[in-house]
Write a structure and sequence with these properties.
This protein has about 375 residues and is an alpha/beta fold. The chain is about 40% helix and about 15% strand. It has 14 helices and ten strands. The strands form two sheets. Strands 1-2-4-3-5-6-9-10 form an eight-stranded mixed beta sheet, with helices on both faces. Strands 7-8 form a two-stranded antiparallel sheet. Strand 5, helix 4 and strand 6 form a beta-alpha-beta unit. It is globular and about 60 Å long.
Length: about 375
């Protein structure tokens, strides 16, 4: 997609401390006349959400997609991909598709992504660009993992110029999405079932699913509206901001795969009302944490400047939960409510009016904290 629009693109493979191989994508500069590679160019790092990939930042094209906008604004843009998604289904020794490796490969939640994947990708990005700081933009799970990293690996606060959390997810007690809430009451049983049956991967991205999503959601499809309604049931209803002509491209790249435990971890947060580590049950928690309950993430350790951007109709990042998160952060740039009442979770990446509603202000904030 990036090459199609005549932007430069590179692929880089990063190995985490626990052996996962992550493929990152880089847009080193824009396509405007006079644009080109230059040492010392500021770095912008973009991190996708649950079931997403680096494609989320480019799929709607150069007129509106954030990766292109930042590249044209003279940023060196790096797009992360976490373990288990389309571009990062690899490990130094484990095969995600074969026994006996499969269960061990998929035995992670977004906790491990925050502790291992983000540090590895950020370290690599800074090393490749010879920079000591970068600007961070995350969407959904890309915000959750940021909060995990900055609270448990506080040294990374020093390498963040500013962090911008789009649809921030930490506390989930008031989450409205019926799809996720349906899972929560049965989370312990589901965890057991996935272990017994070996169903460790959630919504894997296969060629058949990609082709099916493209065929069902394209403009000529009589059931195209099914695609949009499925998205609305998860993220919140906002029909006017969804460009249905782009549904085919969106669904071709999503879902991009994840571990079942990532979903289960979020379901646990609904039940507990806390922002805490994975709950292995009282006995498992005693073995892992030394207490019957999983520890909360120490948000007080976060000192990097953080901006929270939220929508009033976001069924995955409910306003009251965002406000709870806001009250726990001591280095807040500010909280920014999108000025459209119907704005939902996926609108942060796909909305028709995303530039005017979010990205114009976002890029100004990034530039403000660029020193």
């Amino acid at each position: 997609m990036i090459e199609w629009y005549e932007y430069p693109v590179e692929s880089h493979v990063v190995q985490t401390a626990d052996g996962y191989l992550l493929t990152m994508h880089r847009i080193p500069h824009g396509r405007a006349e006079g644009s080109g590679p230059a040492p010392g160019k500021p770095v912008a790092f973009l991190q996708h959400g649950l079931l997403g990939s680096s494609a989320d930042w480019v799929v709607i094209g150069p007129e509106r997609a954030l990766a292109y906008l930042l590249a044209d604004a003279d940023y060196d843009v790096w797009l992360g991909n976490v373990r288990g998604n389309t571009y990062s289904r690899a490990h130094k020794t484990l095969d995600p598709d074969r026994e006996p490796d499969r269960e061990e490969f998929w035995n992670f939640s977004w906790h491990e992504i925050g502790v291992f994947d983000l540090p590895a990708m950020i370290d690599y990005t800074l090393g490749q660009t010879n920079q000591n700081k970068l600007s961070y933009v995350g969407h959904s799970q890309g915000t959750t993992t940021l909060f995990v990293m900055l609270s448990l690996c506080p040294e990374y606060n020093d390498v963040i110029k500013s962090a911008h959390a789009l649809a921030p997810v930490a506390y989930c007690e008031h989450l409205k999405s019926p799809f996720i809430r349906a899972v929560a009451p049965f989370v312990d049983a589901i965890d057991l079932i996935t272990i017994l049956l070996g169903i460790n991967e959630f919504a894997p991205s296969t060629q058949m699913m990609q082709m099916g999503g493209e065929l069902v959601c394209r403009d000529e499809s009589p059931v195209q509206e099914v695609c949009s309604n499925a998205l609305f049931l998860i993220a919140g209803y906002d029909s006017e901001q969804l460009n249905r002509s782009q549904l085919s491209a969106i669904m071709h790249n999503s879902p991009a795969g994840a571990a079942t435990r990532q979903l289960l971890h979020y379901a646990q947060l609904i039940n507990s009302g806390q922002f805490c580590q994975f709950d292995h049950g009282p006995i498992g928690n005693m073995e892992k944490y030394g207490s019957t309950d999983p520890p909360n993430y120490p948000l007080s350790q976060i000192t990097a400047p953080i901006a929270l951007h939220y929508g009033a109709n976001d069924w995955l990042a409910e306003v009251v939960d965002v406000e709870h998160l806001r009250d726990q952060l001591g280095s807040l740039i500010g909280t920014f409510r999108v000025p459209l009442d119907s704005f939902n979770h996926i609108d942060f990446q796909y909305a028709i009016d995303i530039i005017e509603l979010v990205y114009d202000n976002l890029i100004i904030l990034i530039k403000t904290y660029n020193n």
